[in-house]
Amino acid sequence: MKPPLPAPAPEKDQLHPRNPHRAPYDFPQLTQRSPELAAFVQPNHYGNLSIDFANPAAVKALNRALLRQFYGIEYWDIPKGYLCPPIPGRADYVHYLADLLAESNGGTLPPGEEITVLDVGVGANCIYPIIGRREYGWHFVGSDVDGVAVRAAQQIEAANPGLAGAIECRLQPARTRIFDGLIQAGELFDLTMCNPPFHASAAAAAAGSQRKTSNLGTARGPRPALNFGGQNNELWCEGGEASFIRRMVQESGRRPRSCYWYTSLVSKKETLPGVYRALKTAGATAVRTIDMAQGQKKSRLVAWTFLTPAQQAAWQAERWANIS
């Protein structure tokens, strides 16, 4: 059966309506809750309070303040050099996944820990599980090929009572595998999510960092600091996101009944045709493409399932019918 062609979505330039970060950062409020942020806050050239987004320490302090203010996370830390992601865009992915679940459940969002989500590449920051747990009460499994990242994510989970028991972090022992060797026999996920490595090589990742820093107007020589950090496996893989997502599609096709909606972020629009071809080959029964945006930055998520309509109805009845 051919998957239906993804319906075109309207262009967006704002965050999801439920995203609490749609308004400009309220730095007086953030610094009141997180005094350590105050050292990095100063007027920008427009006269508005801001931080130097090219300064990794400032970005990390802002993330701590946002997580404390909006998600009740009192302890959050990452090892030096690891990815420190911008939280507003990460929250958007979670909220659009919630919409996807609701659309698959007659318009009713199934909340609570009975909903199980696999975060591929959880990272040391553990951002997606934090947001998904605090916003919707979901249970998460977070996987990563980096043992340091797994231990850091475990420490965040253990140090925050609101996350205790809600996030299971697993090491993926095979660096070239995604679901193989990770999803256990009989294990079911309502969603998987992934922010795949964007670049195709270390050189491309370094060049991207240089462009970003130059755009911020803070380039200082040929080796700028990565303001959001990132280890090699977080920033690049051979073949870039196109290759990574194709592998993800192939591996998901080997376990079609393990998950209702497999999903991934897709940064480059040019990646989409290859993803759609891979999904057709793998036998996906439905494909959705959801556009997202944060200002001028455009992105999208692609979701696919291998379940037939009858299997989807059975999944809803068995796993979601009694959730309220």
UniProtKB/TrEMBL annotation:
Gene3D superfamilies, alphabetized: Vaccinia Virus protein VP39 (3.40.50.150)
GO molecular function terms listed in the Swiss-Prot or TrEMBL record: 23S rRNA (adenine(1618)-N(6))-methyltransferase activity
Catalytic activity: adenosine(1618) in 23S rRNA + S-adenosyl-L-methionine = N(6)-methyladenosine(1618) in 23S rRNA + S-adenosyl-L-homocysteine + H(+)
Superkingdom, natural source: Bacteria
Signal peptide: none
Keywords, ordered alphabetically: Cytoplasm, Methyltransferase, rRNA processing, S-adenosyl-L-methionine, Transferase
Top-tier EC class: transferase
UniProt record similarity statement: Belongs to the methyltransferase superfamily. METTL16/RlmF family.
Physiological role: Specifically methylates the adenine in position 1618 of 23S rRNA.
Protein name (database record): Ribosomal RNA large subunit methyltransferase F
Name of encoding gene: rlmF
